[in-house]
Design brief:
Membrane topology: Multi-pass membrane protein
Organism: Corynebacterium choanae
CATH topology of the largest domain: Rossmann fold
Strand content: 15-25%
Number of domains: 3
Helix content: 40-55%
GO biological process, one term: monoatomic ion transmembrane transport
Order of helices and strands: HEHHHHEHEHEHEHEHEHHEEEEH
CATH superfamily of the largest domain: NAD(P)-binding Rossmann-like Domain
Protein name: Voltage-gated potassium channel Kch
Distance between the termini: 44 Å
Shape: elongated
Largest sheet: 7 strands, mixed
Structural class: alpha/beta
Number of strands: 11
Subcellular location: Cell membrane
CATH class of the largest domain: Alpha Beta
Oligomer: single chain
């Protein structure tokens, strides 16, 4: 097994692991959603205000030391000197002559002049500033991300998994999407999700998504062989993470289990059963879709058993109980183990979902 893992690692490793790259090199890989920026006119007006503040500060500083220049300065002269100095026009009709005035120009006015030019010049410096800000944002995110959920693949299955997570109250900041398709990542980013561009079969991409600190990983690629490789990689670098994987064909179920998946969903068989039921009992299919849908209606939920429910038969509780989870094992309501509720049990039950509940989340 170790030899096979080393083979997979060697096959998919890169020259430099992404998680070891500096933050500024990850700008085209990691995307962190942010609030809507102000309009260009607001940004321009803000820059002009900052520039005027700097000009006023230099004018006041110059006027306070009016005796240190080639002539006694009026306040208008100080404003004039501030304008021509900060804009680097420099006519030379007013110059500092005392040591004190020259020292003030070197230590204070020159740095302000540079800041003034940065504010007014240019687009290039603005882009560099934006990239630096994003690099710092990525750095903070990598340090703080803990106990989140990583979703590998943002196709039909991945989008449905994210919708279910959001409907269950998981904040968007706690979901990271990994995919190789930029359009899918753009769609995920528009929903407020953090995205990582790259193949999840590579350990460095998974590490960059924070899999080693994740609570759960949803493996939902389009191909079964990719799902197996991703599950192997995740289980190797994150032994304690809960892995939920999806496969198209039931014959690949055992491969996912052997690779380390805690739970496997067979998408093709589930869809096939639904199609078969729809031809005979369409109302059953409608109810099943209602239970699986995060919208208003019914849903299957899990909760901790209450103190007043210990020792009772789950069939006699107020909720419609479908099963009992005890020590990580699921016992259906008709099994002998589920005859009595024990302390620490968790109940799977049918919950009524109201629209106001969804709005509250």
């Amino acid at each position: 097994m170790a030899k096979r893992s080393n083979t997979f690692r060697h096959r998919f490793e890169t020259e430099q692991e992404l998680n070891e790259m500096p933050d500024h090199a990850l700008l085209n890989i990691v995307s962190i959603p942010e609030s809507r920026t102000a309009s260009p006119w607001v940004l321009i007006a803000r820059r002009v205000v900052y520039a005027l503040i700097l000009m006023a500060a230099v004018a006041l500083l110059t006027y306070s030391d009016a005796d240190g220049y080639t002539e006694d300065l009026t306040f208008v002269d100080a404003v004039y000197y501030s304008a021509v100095s900060l804009s680097t026009t420099g006519y030379g009709d007013i110059t500092p002559v005392t040591q004190h005035a020259r020292l003030i120009n070197i230590i204070i006015i020159t740095p302000i002049r540079i800041a003034f030019l940065i504010l007014l010049v240019g687009t290039t410096l603005s882009v560099l500033t934006e990239e630096t800000r994003k690099a710092l944002q990525i750095q903070r995110w990598r340090k703080r991300m803990r106990n989140h959920t990583v979703v590998v693949g943002f196709g039909t299955k991945g989008r449905s998994a994210v919708a279910a997570l959001l409907a269950d109250g998981t904040p968007t900041s706690q979901i990271v999407v990994v995919d190789t398709d930029k359009e899918s990542l753009a769609q995920a980013s528009s929903q407020g999700l953090v995205t990582v561009h790259g193949s999840a079969t590579k350990a460095d991409v998974l590490k960059l998504a924070g899999v080693t600190r994740a609570r759960a990983v949803v493996v939902a690629p389009n191909m079964d062989d990719t799902a197996v490789l991703v599950t192997l990689s995740v289980r190797e670098i994150a032994p304690s993470a809960t892995i939920v994987a999806s496969v198209r064909e039931s014959e690949n179920l055992h491969l996912l289990k052997q690779s380390g998946a805690d739970s496997v969903v067979i998408s093709s068989e589930t869809a096939g059963r639904m199609l078969g039921l729809a031809t005979v009992t369409p109302s059953v299919v409608e109810m099943m879709e209602d239970l699986l849908s995060p919208d208003e209606g019914f849903s299957i939920a899990e909760r901790l058993v209450g103190e007043d429910e210990v020792g009772a038969n789950p069939r006699h509780l107020a909720d419609i109980v479908l099963g009992v989870v005890r020590s990580g094992e699921l016992y259906r309501i008709d099994s002998a183990e589920a005859e009595t509720v024990e302390p620490g049990d968790r109940l799977l039950f049918v919950r009524r979902v109201f629209r106001e509940d969804l709005q509250g989340k």
